[in-house]
Amino acid sequence: MVWLFAIATGLIVANLYYAQTLIGPISRATGLDPGAAGLIVTLTQIGYCLGLLFIVPLGDLLENRRLIVTALLTTAVALLAASMTSSAHLFLFAALCIGLGSVAAQIVVPFAAHLSRPETRGKTVGKVMSGLLMGIMLARPVASLVADAFSWHAIFVLSAATTAALALLLRARLPQRQPAGGMHYFELLGSMWQLLKTTPVLRRRAAYQACMFGAFSLFWTCVSLELTGPYFHISQTGVAIFALVGVAGAIASPIAGHRADQGKSRSTTAIALTLGAAAFAMPLLIHSSRLVDLGVLVLTSVVLDMGVSANLVTGQRAIFALPAEIRSRLNGLYMALFFMGGALGSSLGGWMFAAHGWTGVLWTGLCFPLIALCVFATE
After folding, report:
1. pLDDT digits (tens, 9 = 90+) for 57-66
2. Which residues are CB-neighbours of 143 under 8 A, at least 6 positions away?
3. 2-376 architecture in CATH?
4. What residues contact residue 356 under an 8 Å CB cut-off, 6+ apart?
């Protein structure tokens, strides 16, 4: 079941990131202005945030398996619509809907925590989140390779078919889970504000990850533009290979989960945030030949992904240690808050790259983990 959960979350969340390395061809095909190209990623993340706030809490109220399957079928329809349109407005609306439906991944994660034993919950969540992070990281190279071989439309068609098949598989394999409930939908939503006010660990962990995910989204939104630009002049296949190397950062997830189970959350958080800052400092400090600069960027992608994944799992371990009956709402709040950071990072990244180039992107990215470290210093 852990393998199934890990693969499912990876396939679902990948839908949010296929467009990230295809911003150029999608913008040209839909007539989207280059300065507004970041909206392709930003609107998907905004849709995901809305789903986290208004759909994921239903995991504490409705039967979980049915909720997951419905969200996946909605995502499949939105992906198919995105593959067929040549209108910027319609594509952006489809991107918003893809984000909304992809929150199924965040109903699956608390499901896995619910089925696991308390003493190994961090390790289980770490393994499932490894699948999720592999999905995020593999989405970019897979999208680039498919776009190179066929066109950018093909990856959306392929993903629509995969998502629909996954919905049928999960309906057959997942056990039913009917929460105790006891409140209406609007009461459930109202309780989320109260949970945010009365759960300091949630606020703190969300602040750390919002900064880290902002840096992550900013980097991966802009790095493909830099790599395919005049300095590096790399093809989409080269971008795919670059993104594939970044997958190595996912190894930090189960390690961080295991350390959190041992009560080492604080030191793990400090290491993760420091890795985030170091990732952006390296290309700012090291300038040499084109080959060396490319090697530094590869190392930056791995170190940044390690920091983001370690911090994410440590935060979820802390949140899933809280009562099971509020777990979906806590997870929804946590993910929504840090995805807002991601949406801010991707939109800022597109604007900074257009206005100030790659150096401006790096300085902006460095600010995010430094802010997180300042917040962490008050813990």
Report:
1. 787 777 888 8
2. 17, 18, 19, 20, 21, 22, 152, 155, 240
3. Up-down Bundle (1.20)
4. none
Please give the C-alpha separations between residue 261 and each of 36, 88, 329, 363, in angstroms, as whole numbers: 43, 46, 22, 35
Residue 165 — left, alpha, or beta (φ > 0 → left; ψ -120 to 50 → alpha)?
alpha
- Cα end-to-end distance, the chain, whole Å: 36
| pTM score above 0.90 | no
Helices (H), 33-63: 39-54
Distances (CA, A) of 1 to 7, 164, 173: 10, 20, 9
Q: Which letter does DSSP use for residue 358 in this model?
A: H
The overall average pLDDT reported for the chain is 83
Residue 229 DSSP code: S
Report the distance separating Cα 313 and Cα 151, nearest Å.
35
Angle of CA points 276, 282, 283, to nearest 5°: 115
